[in-house]
From TrEMBL:
It is found in: Cytoplasm. This is Multifunctional fusion protein. Belongs to the thioester dehydratase family. FabZ subfamily. Belongs to the LpxC family. Pathway: Glycolipid biosynthesis; lipid IV(A) biosynthesis; lipid IV(A) from (3R)-3-hydroxytetradecanoyl-[acyl-carrier-protein] and UDP-N-acetyl-alpha-D-glucosamine: step 2/6. InterPro entries: FabA_FabZ, FabZ, HotDog_dom_sf, Ribosomal_Su5_D2-typ_SF, UDP-acyl_GlcNac_deAcase, UDP-acyl_GlcNac_deAcase_C, UDP-acyl_N-AcGlcN_deAcase_N. GO terms for cellular component: cytoplasm; membrane.
Length: 464
């Protein structure tokens, strides 16, 4: 059994934000058990708290930004990376500006501050996100591929492949978080000289300098171009280029520092899941955008696991919710419960349910004697009940609520359903709010569509 950890004291750091150029002070403080990682904007009215989780990510264009009700904190990935690298579960981070300080472009400054505070074990058991089978994620438009395979701890294998003479292909691997502090935390952020010029023209990286990032030059860069950069950054001394192509000749901290920094970023981004991961991540050319998309996918799986832990007592590989779990979620009972099990479930996106139709169904007595056919309205009701599971699972106590139809549109029946048929309900979410959902449902028998429709359902508290 492992227990969660927080820090034993407080520490502060003041520095400039990479993009905003604003000076801010960040203060690390202990947090209560199960409080998680929380940023607090002390400069705003009410000092809003912003949980550092995937549900509060509002921008990933240049780094990771979280927000709530208009309050945001930008470029938090290096801070989160240091926290995750130290295996800290609960911490409060007060900040009096819109962006975390960039420091030297790595996570090591924040890691040293956390180490100075000391680590304190708490009385809450640590939970992990664990995999039963490999997960893959691809973004062809960004030339990114990521695979996660089961492992007894977090491991990362990373490859970058830039078509640039000073960089090219680099590879690294993190065998354990035990290696993070020594071998990865000091790796600095990097960019190419053309990106610097473009970002400057866009009014970004107002706090960027050659001291808080590794800037990679183009081959045969001219003295005129270096003078132009000197003017842009307001430097009094000439800018030089190292044999490795780094402006101002900063020596590399690691021979493959660039790819190691990608690991630093990835560890910071996956911290947004809210729980540490046990798995081996193999990533090719990934950045913040695809890291966050990966975490969103993991979050869906995590939600499913959480729901199964609550409702599904008997684990089965081919069932998400069996009939006993469904009875814990839905208020329907015989003779009007029309879902037997849920076999696929992506929270907030889609669901697949199964209904076995037998001659013992009570409606066959009158529909029709000697010619039993399942009423089409009950097929629609079955789809709606399956969709209700999607909606009710968002409530803390689903047994206290019921899902009502608000509208049913575009209903079509294509083939009769007979005793002995197995209905496969496939529901896809069109829009989903806490108490209102619009879904498109289709029902199949042996791969052939028998009915479909669009549903608008709303959640209301049951009368006591």
């Amino acid at each position: 059994m492992e227990y969660k950890q927080t820090i034993g004291g407080e520490s502060t750091y003041t520095g400039i934000g990479l993009h905003s150029g604003e000076i801010s002070t960040i203060r690390f403080k202990p947090a209560k058990a199960d409080e998680g990682i929380v940023f607090i904007r002390t400069d705003l009215p009410g000092k809003p708290k912003i949980p550092a989780d995937i549900d509060h990510v509002v921008d990933i264009s240049r780094g990771t930004t979280i927000g709530i009700n208009g309050a945001t904190v930008a470029t938090i990935e290096h801070v989160l990376s240091a926290i995750a690298g130290m295996r800290i579960d609960n911490i409060c981070i007060e900040i009096n500006g819109p962006e975390a300080p960039v420091a030297d472009g790595s996570a090591v400054v924040f890691l040293n501050l956390l180490r100075q505070c000391g680590i304190v074990q708490q009385d809450s058991e640590r939970e992990y996100f664990e995999l039963d089978s490999p997960i893959s994620f691809s973004a062809p438009e960004d030339n990114v591929d990521i695979v996660i395979v089961p492992s007894n701890e977090l491991k990362i294998t990373f490859m970058i492949d830039y078509k640039h003479p000073y960089l090219g292909t680099q590879y690294t691997w993190l065998p354990s978080l035990d290696n993070y502090e020594k071998d990865f935390a000091g790796a600095r952020t990097f960019c190419f000289i053309n990106e610097i010029l473009e970002l400057k023209n866009m009014g970004l990286i107002k706090g960027g300098s050659l001291e808080n990032a590794l800037v990679i030059a183009e081959p045969n860069i001219s003295e005129a171009e270096l003078k132009h950069l000197q003017d842009i950054f307001g430097y009094h001394k000439p800018i030089t280029v190292s044999p490795e192509g780094i402006l101002n000749s900063h020596p590399l901290r690691y021979y493959n520092e660039f790819v190691r920094h990608k690991v630093v970023d990835l560890i910071g981004d996956i911290a947004l899941l809210g729980v540490p991961i046990k798995g081996h991540i193999l990533a090719a050319r990934s950045g913040h955008k695809t890291n966050v998309e990966l975490v969103k996918k993991l979050r869906q799986i995590q939600k499913k696991h959480q729901l199964q832990k609550i409702y599904q007592k008997d684990k089965s590989k081919d069932v998400v919710f069996d009939i006993n779990a469904i009875l814990r979620i839905l208020p329907h009972r015989y003779p009007f419960l029309l879902v037997d099990k849920i076999i696929e479930f992506i929270p907030g996106e889609s669901l697949v349910g199964i209904k076995n139709v037998t001659i013992n169904e009570p409606f066959f007595q009158g529909h029709f004697p000697g010619h039993p056919i399942m009423p089409g309205v009950l097929i629609i009701e079955g789809m709606a009940q399956a969709g209700g599971i999607m909606l009710l699972n968002q409530m803390d106590n689903p047994q206290n609520y019921v899902a009502y139809f608000a509208s049913i549109d575009n209903v079509k029946f294509r083939k009769p359903v007979l005793p002995g048929d197995t209905l496969r309900y496939e529901l896809k979410v069109i829009s989903l709010k806490r108490s209102l959902a619009k879904m498109h449902g289709e029902t199949f028998v042996e791969g052939e569509k028998v009915a479909e429709g669009d549903f608008l359902a709303m959640i209301m508290e049951r009368e006591k």
